Every structure is written in C-alpha cells, then in structure tokens.
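#structure-requests
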Amino acid sequence: MTESPAQWMVRGTHRVYASEWVNVDLDDVEIPGGPRFEHHVLRFPRASVGAVVVDYDRVLLLWRHRFTTDTWGWEIPAGWSDDGEDPVTAVVREVREETGYQSDTVTPLVTYSPMTGISTQRYRVYLVTSATLVGAPDTAEASRVEWVPTADLPDLIAAGHITDGPSLTALAVYLITTRADHQADPSG
C-alpha cells in the first residue's frame, strides 16, 4: 500500500518496559496535519494462538478463572508459540496441555489483531477436528474441560459466560463460517 494523507507516521520508539510476556513502548507519532505526541504501544514478543476444537455439533471449552478481571468463564484453548515454534505445532501443544486432547486435523480459521489501536499482537486461530483424549489436562489451566453444544454458544455469550476476546472472536467466526457452509451445501 502507498502512503495516505491519513497515515500516522512513527518518528521513533522508546522502550519503557520489557519482559518475556510483553514490551511497553512509547512511540513518537505524528498525525498528518496534526500534533506530534507519544503513544503507548504494547508489543508481544511471541505469537498468540488459539483453537476451536469441534466434534460434530460440540465445541471443547475450558471453564477458568482469570485473576486479572476476577471472573470465571468459558474459553477456547489458547496460548503462545515458543521462540521459533511453528504456530500449528504451538496450537497442538496448547490443546494437549489445556484439555488432554490430541489434535489430529488442524486448519487455519482466522488471523486477527485484537487491539490495533494500542497493540501489535496478532492472534492465529485454528479449527481442530478429530481430537482424541490422550491424557489429563493441566489442572492449573482450567477447573473444567467440557464439550459444549454449539447451539448453546449464543446463550452462553448473551449470559456473559464467554467474555474472553479471543474466544468470542474465534467462536463467532466458527459459527458464521459453519452457517455459511450449511447455506452453501443444504445437505450438510
């Protein structure tokens, strides 16, 4: 793409905080025809991955507590890629660790940026099918791991039981894609 009159220009970056989890930078930003100012940017050193694990009309979800918001809710299995790790390998590992299921078929579902106004984070979500239970999940990851009927997802979302952004996005894309597939092939 070519530069546009509406494109903000980054004139420099100053790292304020760095860790293996997140980096916080102050970018020196100039708005075309406007002021120049410092803008906080969160930069994540590792790629984020997640999986919608399906078995016919069910989705595998984790019931977990998030201390940052002090809330409980259903989430898809998700995590980060290790340094140099292929995202597909990472999502298979995360599904296994968090649910006890081994992923046999993994296909891309959606890639998105959850907070483009303040973060460089990119989220890769995969559709996992043919998952087989091979062991126990990591008990630190979730209180429960359950197959939830896809028909229940809209009610769970409306009731505030699925509020995690990556889970909402992944499940919404899955439901829309599934509906579109069924409309394209009414026999399916």
